[in-house]
Specification:
The chain has nine helices and seven strands; from the N terminus they run H-H-E-H-E-H-E-E-H-E-H-H-E-H-H-E. The protein is an alpha/beta fold. The chain has a single domain, classed as Vaccinia Virus protein VP39 (Rossmann fold, 3-Layer(aba) Sandwich). Strands 3-2-1-4-5-7-6 form a seven-stranded mixed sheet, sandwiched between helices. Helix 1 crosses helix 9 and helix 8 runs antiparallel to helix 9. The longest helix has 21 residues.
Length: about 260
C-alpha cells in the first residue's frame, strides 16, 4: 500500500476531527473499565492520554469527580475539546492541552488514574506503559484500549491496513506480557462489543464521508482519499473476526519500582 500523501492527511483530518470520537469505544465500556478500578479515591486525579476530541474525556467528567488533564498532540482536536469543556462549565475541573504522550510534562506519581483509548500504540506500547507507570501514584490504575489480532492469516487488505497504522500490533498475550514486564499488575480485560465500533465511530464516519463526497465531487485526489477512508468501516463489516479492540485495566503496585 502506498504511503499517504499530504492531501490524504488533509482529508483524513477533515473527516476525523468532526467525529464524536477517533476510535472504537462508548460510555458502557468506560463504565465497565472504571468498575474494575476497585478502590479509586473519591475524587481521583485523572490523565487522559491521546484524548482526541474528548468523547471519553467527557464521559469521565460524568463518571468521576476529580480533576482531569487531557492531552493530545493535534491542536485542532484540543481546541474542539476546550470549546466543549467551556460550554459545559467544566473549565475549573478539566484542562485540555496540546502535548506529547511520550513526554507529557506532568509531575511524576501525580495521577490516580491514567486513561487512554486506542492511543498508547502510537508511541510504542511498552514505551507508553513505562511513561504511565512513572506518572501514576503507587496503587494507581491504568485503563487503556488496544487493537490485537484474533486470527492467523488475515486477508491482505486487512494486514495492509494495520501494517500502515500499527505495524507492531500483536496478540492478547503480547499485551499481557508487556503489562507485566512494565511493572503493572493486571486487574482485568474485555473485548469491545461491535456497537462500540459503530455507534460513535464508524457510523458517524460514514456519514461524514458521504457529506464530503458532495463537497469534493470534482476533486479526484480528495475523492480517492475518501474512498480509502471508507474502506476501513467496510473492512470491519467483512473481516472483524480477525482483530479486536481490548480494554485493559492494570494497577501500579503499592510498593514496587519500575523494572530496569
Amino acid at each position: 500500500m502506498n504511503e499517504p500523501s499530504p492531501r490524504f492527511w488533509e482529508i483524513f483530518f477533515e473527516v476525523y476531527e468532526n467525529l464524536p470520537r477517533q476510535g472504537p469505544g462508548n460510555r458502557d465500556c468506560a463504565e465497565k473499565a472504571l468498575r474494575l478500578c476497585g478502590d479509586l479515591p473519591p475524587a481521583p486525579a485523572v490523565l487522559d492520554l491521546g484524548c482526541g476530541v474528548g468523547g471519553q474525556t467527557l464521559y469521565l467528567t460524568e463518571l468521576t469527580s476529580g480533576p482531569i488533564v487531557a492531552i493530545d498532540s493535534h491542536a485542532p482536536v484540543i481546541a474542539r475539546l476546550q470549546a466543549a469543556i467551556a460550554e459545559r462549565g467544566l473549565s475549573q475541573r478539566v484542562r485540555a492541552i496540546v502535548g506529547d504522550m511520550a513526554r507529557p510534562e506532568q509531575p511524576p506519581a501525580s495521577f490516580d488514574l491514567i486513561w487512554s483509548e486506542g492511543a498508547l500504540y502510537s508511541i510504542g506500547l511498552r514505551n507508553a506503559l513505562h511513561v504511565c507507570h512513572g506518572l501514576l501514584r503507587p496503587g494507581g490504575y491504568l485503563a487503556f484500549s488496544d487493537a490485537v489480532w484474533r486470527r492467523e492469516n488475515p486477508p491482505p487488505a486487512v494486514k495492509a491496513g494495520f501494517d500502515l497504522d500499527y505495524p507492531t500490533m500483536g496478540w492478547l498475550d503480547d499485551d499481557l506480557t508487556a503489562i507485566r514486564d512494565c511493572g503493572f499488575k493486571l486487574v482485568g480485560h474485555f473485548s469491545l462489543p461491535d456497537e462500540a465500533w459503530w455507534d460513535d465511530f464508524y457510523t458517524p464516519m460514514e456519514g461524514r464521508i458521504a457529506e464530503l463526497r458532495g463537497k469534493y465531487a470534482d476533486d479526484i485526489e480528495a475523492s480517492s482519499a475518501l474512498d480509502r477512508l471508507a474502506g476501513e468501516p467496510e473492512m470491519h463489516r467483512r473481516h472483524s473476526d480477525f482483530y479486536a479492540y481490548k480494554f485493559f485495566v492494570a494497577r501500579r503496585p503499592l510498593a514496587q519500582s519500575l523494572p530496569g
